[in-house]
Amino acid sequence: MSADEITAAVVTAPAETGTETDAASAVYQFALALPGPLDIAASLEMFRRSGDDLLDRWDGAWLIRTQRVGQRVIPYVALVGGTAEAPTLLVEVGRAADRAPVEAALLATFVQAPAEEYAALLRADAVVAALDARYPGLRPVRQFDLFSALVRCISAQQVNLRWATTTRRRLAEAFGERHTIGAREVYSLSAERIASASVAELRALQFTTRKAEYLIGAAQAIASGALDAEALAALPDDEVVARLVALRGIGRWSAEWILARTLGRPCVVAGDLAVRKVVARAYLGYAGERRGEPLPDEAAVRAATAHWGAVAGVAQGLLLHSYAASAM
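User: That's the sequence. What structure does it adopt?
Assistant: Structure tokens below.
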């Protein structure tokens, strides 16, 4: 579901059926059934595998996140329940009026593959079929806020993911907005606030000078309206990439992660080092760096995954999850 489709879903959301607690606790609670197959808990592990950045929080039971609607930021928490075939969430928001946009966002959070195409791929591709059997219902998780997604890309460049998480947490604490739902807290990032920050202020958080410049530049593009998530959602892939790579610090691979993670497009990020490794091992006979073999290039990865088609997002997610799980 694209950004404009989420907006449409908000407008047509069902009537309120949840329960509202007393005003002091300021929590409105409702249950939400999601389409299966979907292993919510396994899919969300990406948010704690490298630490807690305070922006997308997952503790193994509760998802704590925010959803931006216009100029408003709505915090919410969701307790995972049900089964992979019939997954459910018990969701808490601050007020009844917040239900519709949060419900619409949660229904679009987990990328589902087209059923017929996925069944055909499972029949044709033994690698994906084996991973689907091992991790049934594992699905990519979308990151709707464009600025936060760009921050995630920039922070992860040329460092390990744990350090990237540490720097994002520092950015949230220094420049983010703190939100609470009951006893839980979560942060959101304001492009407007970071757009007016200095390089020295971000350097103090241990971002490099270039990353500080990139973050400020991305924030200024978002804050000025030069870069807009809804406008990107209406464009074909190549135009989205062209708009994004015009930003300093955003190369093709980062732009493709935005296609996959934010817009939910079936995009193989073939130049990303982790993607190259998992595809090379699964399809190209790559035995690893220890044997001195060169890693197959981006073109070889694209050729090896061309048959994924509309299922590329889910297939790529399965391979990356398997790689991360084996490294733990």
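Confidence is low (pLDDT under 50) at residues 1-24.
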